Amino acid sequence: DSGMSWDFFVPVCVGDLVKTGGINQYVVQDVVSAKQLPSCLNKFKAALRSQGPLCILEHFDTGYSVLQHCKAVDLAVKEDTLELLVQVVSGLSVSLPSILVSTSLSAAERKEKLNAVKMSVFLLCKLTENLESDSYRQNIVTAPGKGGKKGKACGEGLVQWDSEREQVLQALVQLFQLDIRSLWSLSLVEEEFISCVTCCCYKLLENPTISHVKSKPTRDCVIHLLGLLIKKYNHLLGAGVKVIQMLQHFEQLSSVFAQAVSVWSTEYGVRAIIGEVIREIGQKSSEELAREGSGVKAFASFLSEVSALVPELMIPNISVLITHLEGESHTMRVAVCEVLGEILVRVLCGDGLDESGRADRDRFFDTLQEHLHDSHSHVRTRVLQVYTRIVNSKALPLCRYSEVMELAVGRLMDKSINVVKSSIQLLAAFIAHNPYSFITIEFILFFSLSLPAVAVIKASELWAAMVPELLVTVRKELEPTSEEEKEQQEDEEGGEVEEEKEAEDDRATAVKIAQYLRVNNVQYLTFSSGSDDDTSELNQNLPPTPQKEPEKEGEDGELKKQEMLVQYLKDTETFALQVERAISVINTMLYWKTTSVVQEAVQFCVTVCEFSVANSISGVRKMLPLVWSTDAAIKDAVIHAYRRLYLNPQGDTIRTKAQTLVDSLSELMVDSSLGTIQCLEEIVSDSVITLMDISSTVVQVLWERFTGKRETSSLYKRAAVLLLGMAREVVLSNLDTLCSVALGEKVTEDFLLARDAVITICNITDHVRVRLYKSFMEQAVRLIYFLAESPDQLCSRLLQRSARLLLDQIAEGGEILMSERTLCDTHGALYSHNNMSFPPAVNCVCLAQLLAACGCVAFWQVSHLERSVSAELRRRRGETEEREEKEKETQGTIESNPKSNESTMEEELGLIGASAEDTEAELIRNICETELLAEENLLSAFLPLLVRVCGSPGRYSHPQLTTAACLALSQYMMISPSVCEENIRLMFTVLERSTLPVVRANAIIALGDLTVRFPNILEPWTQNLYARLSDEVPSVRQTAVTVLTQLVLKDVLKVKGQVSEVAVLLIDPDSHINSLALNFFNDDGELEKLCQRFRTAKTERQWCDLAVSLSLLSMCERGFKRLQECWECYSDKLTEPGVYQPLLSITAKLRRGAKPQFKAQVDEFEQRLTAVHTRGLENVESPEMDEENQKAGVSAEKTVTRTPAPTRGRLKSKEGQESACFEEPCCRNSLFLILVTR
């Protein structure tokens, strides 16, 4: 209407515009149908081109109709409408500036422009909200990556909307940047109009992806648009309330609103918004924050991020937040502590604080220190992290170092792992940024005692030392440097020759000198004593400088300096003692079972070592054995630590780097044990690639030090020879040089060097001749038994030749002449004439190799019989049965007689195949029992020698010989029950009395294998196995608990009264043994307890919860048996689906990868579960059902095959003892693989 007799009022609800309005209020006259909208939009476009943005006054109903039919119209229609509305708003933003500044604007024109603004903004905001909702729904419903036209169209629409949304916001920002308030009467903009825009903004912020990087343009536009509305359109209070409400419901908006509040308070100057929001958060009670959905996490995150952006604006409102430190919400306590930390790091820091700032700083530090003892571990952790940041930023006052340091050391004993880790990090920061020098306590005490004798330099002496340099500097600065300056100076001084004027010039010059010295920070020009007249006069001539006239005042100043020095030394002493205490505590954490704590402790040791802290090398050496840790993270941490400290040489040349590297490693090698050397060897070998470019130079430097070409101390010579021992090939190729230097004529000068050289040579030879030989021998024998047609004959010749070489070695030594080369007398040749005073007549290492080969052959011979020979017998039997079957078919039907009927019945019952298998197994057992160790068999010749070596540890004390003999004897005992019975007492004697931990550990493993193979023989000795749980060596205890746990899990051993001996290991000092003992008790006890609770459970919900708990347990074959044993506990509850389904899932998990025999048991149990679930317990386990089950079982037994699969259980021997039948070589289920590695 050209008269513009109506006003447009922004409705509360969109539907209100079609209702009858008030006087002169605009009402929608024509709501266009969805089909007519495209044609109406074309008219709208044409009007926009011809009339400009004011066309919205005539075509408002078209845009309103799109809103009304939003769910029915196509996406293209809504996008076209959106584009038109954006053009209208943008057009108004272009045309309004000239109108707003016009003084001749009529009331009608003002009303026209105002209605156009309100109409276009209203339609644009509402349509934007609608499209945002559609986009969000499509984002949830449409699966990403799906094909099809619909999915593709939706995806394109979403991408297009992202760009259109940004255009909408830019148009609104452009409009509201203008001062459109003048369009309203008295510049009072109605609240409904502002709410229309703000609601659209907050709707966009509800998008879950608004905080993502890709949404940054949209996020920034929304923040700036709201900033304009807050600053110009009185949206301050509304924004504060809305921020709180949205934080309660949308946790992801904490970072968005933190950025928004920062922008509003800085770029738009509305600092009050921070006060409004913080005041609302501060007024939240503890009870309200404790409720679910209170938004406490979002509030806490918001406060932390705002303090990081504008910490200075948090100070005026901090008193409101401090109240939350006394509340129950630990999340809010964390947030407040983080706010305090940001303020202390970025605002209240430095020496330029006024008295009020220092008071606030001290108060905040006191608050933080109090919460180092907070009741919640998360708060303690965060406070320690805040202090770490403060220390790293050098914002902690010196007077608080000792106090905070002491608190941090105390937190090392915290029960929370996270607190302990944060404490270690804080202590490392203290060491890295401390203001004290790391000098020894002894030096501090000595220096403190000598303080009274400290000389004080007088001012005159200081001035006399400064005069020459001072004169040069003053002349350079005050004398004119150019001709113009000289002429100007002459003009100014012309005609003035009075003495009084000259005196004034002298005084001015002196003042200039003093000013120059002040400007250039000449700190050492201080006059602390009035003893010199010239100094006093000069001081009097400097008015700006405060005077120290009395001599007493100067003496007090010197005394004060000395007092400050004494206090500094006391603080240094306190700090050093706290560091020593921290080092001792953290060093113990290197062997904790928590990986992350160990990693932090390793990093701390590196830090203290890098800063040359006293006693720091103790932790570095203590963490060295962790290089053998089974935890890859810990091993990597140690290797990287040593690389950083010792294997990262610095220097300009390769030679310099090599010398630095050798110096670093030599410090570690001095007085190192053999274990330390082995650990270093592992690290060096792991880092050989990084040292490849300087390795040859390093070897050269080591040889120079060892041979004395470069003068060095005896300690570093010894370190050099030990380091050379790590490069075995280098030492072997220069063995003559090594011997001539260390073991030559000068051997008496340094016996320790000779000792270390011998150790190096022995380590190299032992490594080459023993460990490599043993590994090679085992694999060679294994290969022979797998590939050779007659492996027993090959191995027999191998043992004969090895024994002959050993006997020849004895004969060549002249210790004994053997006329008979019988192997049975080999043990008699070990000591000539059985006189222990004579030296051994045979090389113990060579004998150890022979005995190890004997045991290995015996072991694989048994495996060969039970694997290959048994398989060949089955194959032949199968062929024979097949041939007989064909002969029967060709002969025709044989007349029925009692004998044939009996054989037919045996075949049906499967007795023929079973008896054949028993015969084959009995044959194998007879071979092991009677033939393998018969007198004519080579293996029997070595058994007496093994028994003698193992039974005489005092005579045969060589470690390698003893280890090899005990291992070989245990392998012999695997052959037959008779050999096991004959030597079982000797093996347990070795287990209990051997002085070598490796022998005791190997014996435990061997006896575990024998327990599996011959359980009846080992059963009386069970208590002796458990006795090793109290062995004094941790490695033996660890092996014992590992073996016993495996035996118990496999149902080989039953735990009775010995459970207390395992329980003691729960408090073992070794953390690894602790965990193994814990695993021992965590197997099936929980399962049985849960089953028993079915009896006391009263409700169906409790039954279902117990069943679900059972399904969550990890269950093995032993646990399944326990579940079957507890059948009566839960069988009457199986009619409930909530009980039946979880138990059914247990059977599904047990069936995966199970052996056929066990799978059959699981299937039977599952059928039983299903039967009870469907028919009820009373109908399944009645006597009639039992009879039916028995009949079904008989009919099922008739379907057996003639030649069943080989039995994988235990076989009965003649003596009634059980022996395990091996699937592959007997090492498949054996622990001897562990023995081999030892």
TrEMBL record:
<keyword id="KW-0498">Mitosis</keyword>
<feature type="domain" description="Condensin complex subunit 1 N-terminal">
    <location>
        <begin position="77"/>
        <end position="239"/>
    </location>
</feature>
<keyword id="KW-0158">Chromosome</keyword>
<dbReference type="GO" id="GO:0010032">
    <property type="term" value="P:meiotic chromosome condensation"/>
</dbReference>
<keyword id="KW-0132">Cell division</keyword>
<keyword id="KW-0226">DNA condensation</keyword>
<dbReference type="InterPro" id="IPR016024">
    <property type="entry name" value="ARM-type_fold"/>
</dbReference>
<dbReference type="GO" id="GO:0005634">
    <property type="term" value="C:nucleus"/>
</dbReference>
<dbReference type="InterPro" id="IPR007673">
    <property type="entry name" value="Condensin_cplx_su1"/>
</dbReference>
<feature type="domain" description="Condensin complex subunit 1 C-terminal">
    <location>
        <begin position="998"/>
        <end position="1083"/>
    </location>
</feature>
<feature type="compositionally biased region" description="Polar residues">
    <location>
        <begin position="891"/>
        <end position="903"/>
    </location>
</feature>
<dbReference type="GO" id="GO:0007076">
    <property type="term" value="P:mitotic chromosome condensation"/>
</dbReference>
<feature type="region of interest" description="Disordered">
    <location>
        <begin position="871"/>
        <end position="905"/>
    </location>
</feature>
<comment type="function">
    <text>Regulatory subunit of the condensin complex, a complex required for conversion of interphase chromatin into mitotic-like condense chromosomes. The condensin complex probably introduces positive supercoils into relaxed DNA in the presence of type I topoisomerases and converts nicked DNA into positive knotted forms in the presence of type II topoisomerases.</text>
</comment>
<comment type="similarity">
    <text>Belongs to the CND1 (condensin subunit 1) family.</text>
</comment>
<dbReference type="InterPro" id="IPR032682">
    <property type="entry name" value="Cnd1_C"/>
</dbReference>
<feature type="region of interest" description="Disordered">
    <location>
        <begin position="529"/>
        <end position="558"/>
    </location>
</feature>
<dbReference type="InterPro" id="IPR011989">
    <property type="entry name" value="ARM-like"/>
</dbReference>
<dbReference type="GO" id="GO:0000796">
    <property type="term" value="C:condensin complex"/>
</dbReference>
<feature type="compositionally biased region" description="Acidic residues">
    <location>
        <begin position="480"/>
        <end position="503"/>
    </location>
</feature>
<keyword id="KW-0131">Cell cycle</keyword>
<dbReference type="Pfam" id="PF12717">
    <property type="entry name" value="Cnd1"/>
</dbReference>
<dbReference type="Pfam" id="PF12922">
    <property type="entry name" value="Cnd1_N"/>
</dbReference>
<feature type="compositionally biased region" description="Basic and acidic residues">
    <location>
        <begin position="871"/>
        <end position="890"/>
    </location>
</feature>
<dbReference type="InterPro" id="IPR024324">
    <property type="entry name" value="Condensin_cplx_su1_N"/>
</dbReference>
<feature type="region of interest" description="Disordered">
    <location>
        <begin position="478"/>
        <end position="507"/>
    </location>
</feature>
<protein>
    <recommendedName>
        <fullName>Condensin complex subunit 1</fullName>
    </recommendedName>
</protein>
<keyword id="KW-0539">Nucleus</keyword>
<dbReference type="GO" id="GO:0000779">
    <property type="term" value="C:condensed chromosome, centromeric region"/>
</dbReference>
<dbReference type="GO" id="GO:0051301">
    <property type="term" value="P:cell division"/>
</dbReference>
<dbReference type="InterPro" id="IPR026971">
    <property type="entry name" value="CND1/NCAPD3"/>
</dbReference>
<dbReference type="GO" id="GO:0042393">
    <property type="term" value="F:histone binding"/>
</dbReference>
